[in-house]
Design goal:
The protein is mostly helical. The protein has one domain: Orthogonal Bundle (Farnesyl Diphosphate Synthase). Helix content is about 70%, strand content about 0%. The chain contains 16 helices and two strands.
Length: about 290
């Protein structure tokens, strides 16, 4: 089964469990609405790609880890769009969850996705408790404080927002979780894979900052110019478009060079180069060509 199909099957199974008998109908509907149709699925693809490069000795654990990480990402989007944060009516080209279902249910949907991300890992425990413990630690680190996605959202409540800390938590945490969890699911040491996730996470955030100033809402599927409106740090604003583009190129190069020795290292380097080429906004890609 191809990586994309593995991800969608794993997510469908996970969401179906959350929609089980007795679930409030509107919550069950909102959970599926928040996860499908697919976004880019960059983080779970990265998780499975690393697992594959490390031998993919336990595909079921890798699929569970990839699904958990994507559920957490979807939860972060639901909460990010809420009126108390970005107040965004659009996400992935359709109405955001709070715009479709109301803010109270959107809060609960995000909460349920976070909880269910951990529940998705539960079957791993029956087969390999040690692997479950490793994955649980990795995912937990990516969610909470001091450096997870909750902390990333919390930085938006502070008067002063350090760019590096904000981006590392808000975006980088789940990329680090993806690379480390992919290795752990395959039975490899997770720590050498931290740098790859860290560099890719920062690269993705710089690319997102560029898109926020260069693209339109139809292209992004969400409102643009939000960093300037809400006085949030933005690499393109701080470094200029040219400086941010150069930073993005440096980060992609560092990510590729950080890939540890493993059976599939060469193929993974090629994949990372191909996928990160898509990070660049179309305007910059045309200029580079």
């Amino acid at each position: 089964m191809q990586i994309a199909d593995r991800i969608e099957h794993a997510l469908d199974r996970a969401v179906a469990l959350a929609q089980g008998p007795g679930a409030p109908p509107l919550l069950a509907s909102a959970l599926r609405y928040a996860v499908f149709p697919a976004g880019h699925r960059i983080r779970p693809q990265l998780c499975l790609a690393v697992a594959g490069a490390c031998g993919d000795a336990d595909p079921e654990s890798a699929d569970a880890a990839a699904a958990a990480i994507e559920l957490l990402h979807c939860a972060s989007l639901v909460h990010d769009d809420l009126p108390c944060f970005d107040d965004s009516a659009l996400r992935r080209g359709k109405a955001s969850v709070h715009a479709e279902y109301g803010a109270p249910l959107a809060v609960l949907t995000g909460d349920a996705l976070i909880v269910h991300a951990f529940a998705t890992l539960r079957p791993v425990a029956a087969r390999d408790p040690a692997r479950m413990a490793a994955l649980l630690g990795i995912v937990t680190e990516a969610v909470g404080s001091p450096g997870g996605i909750v902390a990333g959202q919390a930085w938006e409540c502070e008067v002063a927002v350090p760019l590096a800390d904000y981006q590392r938590a808000k975006t980088g945490a789940l990329f680090v979780a993806a690379t480390r969890a992919g290795a752990a699911a395959a039975g490899a040491d997770a720590e050498p894979w931290r740098m790859l996730g860290d560099k890719l996470g920062e690269a993705y955030q710089v690319a997102d900052d560029l898109r926020d100033v260069l693209c339109d809402a139809d292209e992004l599927g969400k409102p643009i110019g939000q960093d300037a409106v809400r006085l949030r740090p933005n690499a393109a604003a701080q470094l200029g478009v040219g400086g941010a583009k150069a930073r993005l190129e440096d980060l992609v190069r560092a990510a590729v060079e950080s890939i540890p020795d493993c059976p599939g290292a060469a193929d993974l380097r090629m994949l990372i180069k191909a996928q990160t080429a898509l990070f660049f906004p179309k305007q910059l890609a045309r200029e580079a060509a």
